[in-house]
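User: Structure please.
Assistant: Input sequence and predicted structure:
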Amino acid sequence: MNDKVKDQAAFIEEPLFKIGKKSEFITVGRLVYFSELYGIVTVPDGFPTDFSSIPRVFRALHPVNGKHRLAAVVHDYLCTDDITPRKVADKVFNEAMKVLKVKGWRRRQFYIAVRIGGIFGRKKK
């Protein structure tokens, strides 16, 4: 295991991103995140993401490509794996935003937004 991974959440490997289709980014290299709640999350090279599905009207306050973007990629990946319960993916997202030092008020707003968004997304497990 990487020296960086001990007992606290951390990003171990960070990818670059290339522009994909409209509003889409593609990982170049893998993203590896250690979560205290979940364990190791490995987002593969070539994974498509929109960083954050933020309605255009709110983007002035919450940019899509902000400080939270790596946490958003982890969340997108966990939400598409058909194994991880949505509630767990949302909690890991919140944890990863803390690691990235996203301000508390913004983190709470993003967390509430993904919890509400989950109602309309894939089925709860």
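The longest strand covers residues 31-35.
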